[in-house]
């Protein structure tokens, strides 16, 4: 009868070998997981960047396309080349700003009494009129009219509003309307006090600019997250001032907004392009700096010399360029460069030899402000361009709305 075999376990060498093989397998699985997670985060970051820039462009396009509806073309669009939002002034190497004006479709009142510092309405207000809102007072037939600005917030159910009689402030996209919307002396004319009361409509002011601030409470990233900001030019928080505190963050990660303008032309003459090879006059000065005899008028024919000059009323197309970046940097990569032509990651082709005039971001130049430099930093970036034709700037006469009152 054979002797039974005694139970036998693993030797120490077998255990060590098995442990080593298991460790290698687990390490491989871990590396694959980490790699997949990293790739997922990178793709998710890029998708978020692309989504942000598309949504921002869609919103800005919609307002720019409507610019000038029911508003004189000479004050429908205001340009701000290189706007430093923190300093509320023109800077060097900053993103651009743009302000557009269009008439509110749903506000209409009769002015039963008109003064140089107030308006009295035939019906109570259905909504609050905030300080800074623009009103357009139209005489019967809209032959004469005046733009004025609300000076004190009027609550809903009020039947009158005080007008702003203070000196016009510095014109900026983060402040109240300027001198173009304070035609108080015009209200002394007889047609505003005739037996047929004038009609009052509201003009919407919409400004877009880029600013950065702390949005997550992290001291390491304080003031470094860029946003596309929306400002209505009104005292939204009702603190008595119209300033940056009344702005609304519109889209996160928008690092650059560059704007250029294609002006009116005739025949085969190449259209002037303002804002690429030359500077855009700041805000209202583009209108005011033009001699009065050369400013386009509503009644001017499209072939009139006034319609062919460098003036905001003659804008036929607005070119927008937006750059969005990821909200957090990736320390494992240098980050995209969308400013330098030909660099891997930029959206433009390499420059031909001898070419020096082509620019990746319109008139930004090569030395942008540090907080808005679209190069490196470990950020993923996306560039989106759009061209918008504001057809309402072709308007050649004012009009009085026929719909019933509201607002």
From TrEMBL:
Source organism superkingdom: Bacteria
Tagged with keyword Membrane: yes
Keyword annotations from UniProtKB, A to Z: Membrane, Transmembrane, Transmembrane helix
Bilayer-crossing regions: 12-34
A Pfam family it matches: N_methyl
PROSITE patterns associated with the record: PROKAR_NTER_METHYL
Record field: compositional bias (Basic and acidic residues): 327-336
Region spans: Disordered: 327-356
Protein name, as recorded: Prepilin-type N-terminal cleavage/methylation domain-containing protein
Organism name: Archangium lansingense
């Amino acid at each position: 009868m054979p002797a039974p075999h005694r139970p036998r376990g693993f030797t120490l060498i077998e255990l060590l070998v098995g442990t080593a093989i298991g460790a290698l397998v687990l390490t491989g699985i871990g590396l694959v997981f980490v790699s997949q997670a990293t790739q997922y985060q990178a793709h998710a970051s890029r998708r978020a960047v692309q989504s942000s820039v598309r949504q921002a462009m869609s919103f800005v396009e919609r307002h720019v396309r409507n610019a000038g509806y029911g508003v004189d073309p000479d004050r429908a669009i205001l340009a701000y080349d290189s706007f430093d939002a923190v300093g509320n002034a023109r800077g060097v190497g900053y993103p651009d700003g743009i302000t557009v004006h269009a008439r509110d479709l749903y506000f209409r009142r009769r002015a039963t009494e008109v003064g140089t510092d107030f308006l009295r309405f035939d019906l109570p207000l259905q909504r609050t009129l905030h300080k800074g809102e623009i009103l357009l007072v139209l005489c019967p037939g809209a032959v004469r009219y005046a733009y004025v600005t609300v000076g004190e917030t009027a609550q809903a159910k009020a039947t009158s509003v005080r007008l702003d009689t203070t000196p016009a402030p510095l014109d900026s996209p983060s402040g109240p309307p300027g001198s173009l919307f304070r035609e108080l002396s015009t209200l002394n004319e007889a047609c505003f006090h005739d037996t047929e009361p004038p009609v009052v409509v509201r003009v919407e002011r919409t400004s877009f600019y880029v600013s950065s601030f702390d949005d997550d409470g992290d001291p390491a990233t304080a003031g470094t997250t860029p946003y596309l900001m929306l400002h209505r030019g009104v005292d939204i928080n009702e603190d008595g001032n119209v300033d940056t505190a009344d702005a609304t963050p519109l889209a996160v990660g928008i690092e650059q907004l560059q704007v250029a303008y294609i002006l009116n032309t005739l025949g085969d003459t190449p259209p002037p392009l303002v804002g690429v090879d030359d500077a855009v006059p700041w805000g209202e000065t583009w209108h005011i700096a033009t001699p009065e005899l050369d400013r386009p008028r509503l009644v001017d024919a499209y072939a009139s010399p006034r319609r062919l000059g460098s003036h905001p009323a003659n804008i036929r197309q607005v070119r927008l360029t937006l750059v969005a970046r990821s909200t957090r940097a990736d320390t494992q990569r240098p980050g995209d460069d969308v400013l330098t032509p030909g660099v891997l990651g930029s959206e433009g082709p390499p420059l031909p030899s001898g070419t020096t005039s082509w620019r990746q971001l319109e008139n930004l130049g090569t030395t942008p402000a540090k907080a808005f430099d679209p190069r490196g930093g470990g950020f993923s970036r996306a560039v989106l361009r759009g061209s918008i034709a504001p057809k309402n700037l072709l308007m050649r006469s004012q009009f009085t709305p026929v719909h019933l009152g509201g607002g």
